[in-house]
Each structure stands twice: as C-alpha cells, then as structure tokens.
Specification:
about 100 residues; mainly alpha; 3 helices; elongated
C-alpha cells in the first residue's frame, strides 16, 4: 500500500465526514429532546427527526464510500475483510463517543 497524498487526504476526509454526520445526528437529538420546552412542539419534533435522518443518511453514505475505497486497494481479501471490520468498529465507536459528549446519552 502506497501512502500517497490522495490516500492520506481520503482517510482524513472520511474521518471528518463521520464526525460531521455525528454532529448532525446529535443536533437533531438535542432539538428533539428540547421540543417539549418550545411553543411549537410539532415543528421542533419534525426538524429534529429530519436532522437525525439526514445525519444517519450522511453516515451511511460515508461508510459506503469508505468501504468502496477499501475494495479498490490491491490487497488480499483476508486483509480487506479485517480492515473493513476495524473501520466499521471504529466508526461506530467514534459516533458513540460523540453522542456521550454532545448529547449526554
């Protein structure tokens, strides 16, 4: 595996996108949780739900893109599966930690 500028940029872009999608999800949850305290509950619930759905969509799109990039690497299938499992576990852990810090779940 060659550490080119494109590879390094791709890794950092992917991590950044995971963080951004996690923030969108956390913002949606916060809006949803604060809705009973506002005068327009239905509006706040709708906006919170839409933000959470957009955040999960961005998360899934980013994960699919990252896994596609893994398959383009010229490595054996065993290493590819191991990398994908580690990638998925790290992505889930990053999102989980952001929820604890941002939303307090």
């Amino acid at each position: 595996m060659d550490l080119t500028d494109n590879l390094v940029k791709g890794v950092f872009d992917n991590v950044r996108n995971f963080l951004l999608s996690s923030v969108v999800i956390a913002a949606g949850i916060l809006i949803f949780r604060e809705a009973p305290q506002t005068t327009t509950m239905a509006y706040s619930y709708t906006i919170g739900l839409v933000a959470v759905l957009i955040g999960f969509s961005l998360f899934a799109l980013n994960a699919a893109h990252g896994w596609k990039k893994f398959t383009e690497l010229k490595i054996s299938k065993v290493y590819l599966v191991v990398l994908q499992v580690i990638y998925a576990l790290l992505a889930i852990e990053i999102v989980g930690k952001l929820f604890v810090v941002r939303v307090g779940l």
